[in-house]
Design goal:
The protein has 356 residues and is α/β, with parallel strands linked by helices. It is built from twelve helices and 15 strands. The protein is 32% helix and 20% strand. The radius of gyration is 21 Å and the shape is elongated. Bound molecules: S-adenosyl-L-homocysteine.
């Protein structure tokens, strides 16, 4: 972390690690929070601009550390106001984050991996395979970079870990990122109520999400063991539908909170009335809501999006059975910024409109 001759990435340090770093320099303890505030709250990009540190310390720091912000971000702006951020990491790999305005909300969708270790057949990211996990500073950088982009009358209201990757497969970085996001003295001061972690169903790790105080969304997408394994082979291998639902029932939900179940609707595959009725049975008695996501197509995708009428029919079966059910609007489709559309399309990227 702070070995002589190595460069420390400041945004990649947790608070205890920052404290260790500061002590290794023989600086007073309060310097840890000073530095954390500069890089998280004030989004500083240049170490020598830390004006409440003595110039001598700033010089020392800039010789032994970097802040860890990404070098380059390209913005794709959709006609519907959605902005997709294509972030180039320091090793040249690219990830995506998406800013989605909707009425009074402005939601940021953040990635946790480059690619994904799962292979869900309906998701473009799955086709890339897993390149690597994102580090803490790379997750935080997406949030800071999105914040840098906003005009003075905009502010982010919600943050969802639903971008590229499986958040629960990168749990250490996820936990550290949520800690920085929700820390008030030096971090971004978000309430956990406005943060949602979405998982394809790593059942044994759900309790670790509960401890973070954020919301949990589970991508269910199928109502039989067989179909789930067909649509989400790797996720199905990790946990059966039955064990996943059992873990959801055991989940220590805080009062006034509920689980979210996501269900991608694939025309003629999992959108029948029988599927809806089975879903009702599976979720019976759980404090939850359902988000239906009509399939977002991408070049070469093997599925089709159901008609609006079919989506509404599916929704009405759930609603009539007493399940709070919402249909997720598809946003940013023209820039491939909607659910399941994040990822590499070699040679097939839309022209970028703006560079930041
Ligand atoms: N790995 C995590 C988070 C990323 S996917 C998870 O599975 O939850 C975020 C959501 O998008 C999931 O609910 C997933 O089922 C959904 N999704 C993936 N591909 C999609 C597509 N092509 N159309 C609509 N939704 C999709």
């Amino acid at each position: 972390m702070t070995f002589p001759g190595t460069v420390t990435t400041l945004l990649g340090l947790t608070e205890p690690q920052m404290m260790k770093f500061v002590r290794a320099q023989r600086w007073p303890d309060y310097r840890a929070q000073q530095i954390l505030r500069w890089i998280h709250q004030r989004r500083l990009r240049t170490i020598t601009d830390m004006t409440d540190l003595p110039m001598r310390d700033r010089v020392t720091l800039s010789q032994s550390a970097t802040i860890g912000r990404s070098a380059h971000t390209t913005i794709l702006s959709s006609q519907d106001g959605t902005r997709k951020l294509l972030v180039t990491l320091n090793d040249g790999l690219m990830i995506e984050a998406v800013l989605i305005p909707d009425d009074e909300r402005l939601t940021l969708c953040v990635s946790t991996q480059v690619g994904c270790l799962l292979d869900c057949g309906f998701c473009l990211t799955g086709r890339m395979g897993l390149k690597r996990n994102l580090k803490l500073h790379e997750i935080i950088d997406q949030i800071l970079t999105a914040q840098d982009l906003l005009s003075s009358d905009e502010h982010m209201t919600n943050l969802v870990f639903m971008g590229m990757g499986e958040p629960l497969a990168n749990l250490d970085s996820l936990k550290a990122a949520v800690t920085a996001l929700t820390n008030k003295p030096w971090g971004l001061g978000w309430s956990g109520r406005r943060v949602t972690v979405s998982t394809a169903g790593l059942a044994s790790r759900l309790p670790e999400v509960a401890a973070l105080g954020v919301n949990l969304a589970i991508s269910l997408n199928a109502t039989t063991e067989e179909q789930r394994r067909e649509l989400m082979p790797a996720a199905g291998e990790i946990a059966s539908l039955r064990s996943l639902l059992a873990a959801c029932r055991r989940y220590p939900l805080a009062s006034h909170r509920r689980l979210t179940f996501e269900y991608v609707l694939l025309a003629g595959v999992n959108d029948h009335a029988d599927d809806a009725r089975r879903l009702v049975q599976l979720l019976r008695g759980m404090r939850c809501k359902v988000n239906l996501i009509p399939f977002n197509e991408f070049p070469g995708s093997p599925f089709q999006r159901p008609s609006e009428q079919e989506v509404l029919r599916f929704q009405s079966i759930l609603r009539e059975a007493g399940l709070d059910t919402f249909v997720r609007k598809s946003r940013g489709q023209d820039v491939l910024g909607a659910c399941g559309q994040l990822g590499e399309l070699p040679g097939n990227r839309p022209p970028y409109l703006d560079t930041y």
